[in-house]
Amino acid sequence: GNSVTQMEGPVTLSEEAFLTINCTYTATGYPSLFWYVQYPGEGLQLLLKATKADDKGSNKGFEATYRKETTSFHLEKGSVQVSDSAVYFCAPRPASGGSYIPTFGRGTSLIVHP
Amino acid sequence: NAGVTQTPKFRILKIGQSMTLQCTQDMNHNYMYWYRQDPGMGLKLIYYSVGAGITDKGEVPNGYNVSRSTTEDFPLRLELAAPSQTSVYFCASSYGPWDRGADTQYFGPGTRLTVL
């Protein structure tokens, strides 16, 4: 079956620090890979995605590269802001098998201090 | 577009009561989903639907029922509420299946349910 492992949180950083949130997955075939973000009191929203090996997804200064050889999709940002404080979810989604139902990681809480 | 809307935002139930969580999307999406989010546990899929009239169980379906009579609506029914169902419930939708898994899920704002 499909599974995803995210690094445990909370991750606490000072403003302008470098961020990495690790994500590794197991999935059949070649899944599409997603990062979703959940701001306090809200539902999840798409942050970025990549649909094939070596693709780089990017949005709002965040980046993640689809690494097929290591089955990873680590999220990075060069300089975090207080407004980036949120919970981040990695979600591989199978591209075969019929149902295309994604698997969500446990989420990694990011806290950015001024 | 309103996107995905959920009602109510908050609800407190007594053990054994029943209720329906409403979910509506106006994006003409085929796929719809119900998740529950417990603290520190991420999202668990309760039920999903790939089109009107078609529903299927997810990871944690016990204690819940769904129906999908229209493309727009996907209500979630709790028949006999239990404290273990205290959670935040999210409805989501996506275009699917023609993007073969590459389509984005759009989430509602959630319903916070407490069962006492």
Report on the structure:
The complex is a heterodimer of chains A (114) and B (116). By secondary structure, chain A is mostly beta strands. Chain A is built from no helices and 11 strands. Chain A has strands at residues 3-6, 11-14, 19-21, 23-26, 32-38, 45-50, 56-59, 62-65, 75-77, 86-93, 108-113. In chain A, the strands form 3 sheets. Chain A has a 5-stranded mixed sheet, with no helix packed on it. A 4-stranded antiparallel sheet of chain A has the order 3-9-8-7, with no helix packed on it. In chain A, strands 1-4 form a two-stranded antiparallel ribbon. Chain A is globular and about 45 Å long. The mean pLDDT of chain A is 91. With 116 residues, chain B is mainly beta. Helices cover 0% and strands 48% of the residues of chain B. Chain B has strands spanning 4-7, 10-13, 19-25, 31-37, 43-51, 54-57, 64-66, 76-78, 87-94, 106-107, 111-115. In chain B, strands 2, 4, 5, 6, 9, 10 and 11 form a 7-stranded mixed sheet that branches. In chain B, strands 1-3-8-7 form a 4-stranded antiparallel sheet, with no helix packed on it. In chain B, strand 4 (31-37) and strand 5 form a beta hairpin. Chain B is globular, with a radius of gyration of 14 Å. Chain B starts with a strand and ends with a strand. The mean pLDDT of chain B is 92. The A-B interface holds A 31-32, 34, 36, 42-46, 49, 51, 89, 93-96, 98-102, 104-107 and B 4, 31, 33, 35, 40-43, 45, 48, 50, 56, 58, 90, 92, 96-97, 100-110.
Could you give a quick summary of the protein structure above?
Chain A is mostly beta strands.
How are the secondary structure elements laid out?
The complex is a heterodimer of chains A (114) and B (116).
Chain A: E1 3-6, E2 11-14, E3 19-21, E4 23-26, E5 32-38, E6 45-50, E7 56-59, E8 62-65, E9 75-77, E10 86-93, E11 108-113
Parallel strand pairs in A: 2-11
Antiparallel strand pairs in A: 1-4, 3-9, 5-6, 5-10, 7-8, 8-9, 10-11
Chain B: E1 4-7, E2 10-13, E3 19-25, E4 31-37, E5 43-51, E6 54-57, E7 64-66, E8 76-78, E9 87-94, E10 106-107, E11 111-115
